[in-house]
Amino acid sequence: MNTDLSNIKKINITNKKILFFGFGGVAKCVLNYLQFYFEYDVKKIYIIEKCKTTLYGPNINNIKHSNIIIDTVSCINFDKLLKQLEIKHDDIIIDLTFSSNTYFFVNKCLLLGINYINTSIEDENDSFFGTSINHQQQVVNKLFEDFKNDKNKIRSNVLIECGQNPGLIQHYVLYALNNLNKRINNTMEDDYRPESMINAIKTCKVGTILMSEIDNMFLKKENSNKYQNNKTKKNRINKQNKIYNTWSVVGLLKEGLDKAEIVEGGTLNKFIKPII
Description:
Blueprint: E1 11-12, E2 18-21, H1 25-37, E3 38-39, E4 45-49, E5 68-70, H2 78-85, E6 92-95, H3 102-112, E7 115-118, H4 126-129, H5 133-149, E8 158-159, H6 167-185, H7 194-204, E9 216-218, H8 230-240, E10 244-246, H9 249-257
Parallel strand pairs: 1-3, 2-4, 2-6, 4-5, 6-7, 7-8
Antiparallel strand pairs: 9-10
Helix pairs in contact: 3-5, 6-7
């Protein structure tokens, strides 16, 4: 899919501070693409990252050194760090941490009126109980319901699990089914009604949709399959402002050995499915 980002109407958030929790692969991409969707003040971008060695990538050199804190954000130092950076009501937190204190972050952002978004629920307590994605979403929903029941006024937006894995995968699936439906009906009109999605599945006999997460970043040499060494790779990324993604061994092992949920896609779907 080729997308011309130059025609997108940008949202003006120059009056807001933007705080990144973590600066790994996803954060590098987010910072790189902010310019296409938002009018923002680079002097108001802040980063809290536990590993100094990951502080490289496109546009990071534009961020003031004083706006970057090397620390692990948690429920213990959350208030202190926000006070230090003067993050207040209506500012934005982009949480890209893993195994942290998601439930605490969500609750505090609701109370403080801070806009909060994460790519997945990564509360460290869940690893002890083997909780499922469904249970995690129920916990966040209960936090929200309790917040309303205590007669608190909702002053901010909290968006959870909107990322490459798992949030946007649903959007990709719907986008694919919509395009199948347009081809079937020989039309350019989008149609995301449930009956149209079902029609695309039945007509094209879609039994399974597999989505693969792209997990790591490398810089390739021109006309070569060999990767640069780490030092050269970082310098080239900073210089060229380009990111190339590929699967990482670490990501493969981590997700391959993790607990997983297998969900059957409905008894009405009789089309061919792979044996898992």
